[in-house]
Write a structure and sequence with these properties.
mainly alpha
Amino acid sequence: MPLLDLLTTFTGVPLGALLAAMAITAVAATLHGTVGLGFGMVSVPTLAMLDPRLSPVPQMLVVLPLILRMAWHERGGIDWRGFGLIAVGRLPGAALGVWLVERFARPGLELLIAAIIGGAVLTSLAVRRGAAPRRATGGLRVAAGMASGVGSYIAGIGGPPIALLYRHAAGPTLRSTMAMVFLVGLSITLVTRTAAGHISTSDLRVALVLLPAVGVGLRLSHVLKPRVEGPRLKVAVLVVSGAAALALALRTLLG
């Protein structure tokens, strides 16, 4: 078909890989729009194996409008105070990540991050039926921001610490607050990459072609969100966070 041939010519990516990338991007956007995290975990490593031109920069570009839409759509639920405290912790967390990478082997650090996230998930499962959770303190929010900054810098996984912090919150609060956290971190990354000349015309073309798939995923998430609110959302957060820890551990161990 002429249109499909045009897409291949426009991006330089084979048609089969491009169609698969559209499907994977739509699935990742659906998960992220429903739960509040998971886009990068699903799309970035999968598409990098499929074709290096598909990831990671094109995925960073297409997820930006997704998180902007999520933050705006559920803006009434944003925990502004919590977001501010998390943001306070992110910067020293990233600095700590830099310090750790300079002094220790990255594989060991990645396994440690996977173990910490996995341990937090297991602890949450163990106490899930216990007493009602107490409101997170300001110190815990700052600590979660630091953990997110460390995990994001070292392993590209910054979402689970924040998601676990807000797992008992209402869906709009969890998703919109996390969207704000992702927005700050992603904006810094994109500005840094642009200044360093690490975003190419090819990245922009691939992102433009994949953008409609994000729209499909966002639309599907609107259908799914009402079905996973309450206890189901808490379970989904634990499952996605646990899967992220497991994927990181396997990626590190298998090289």
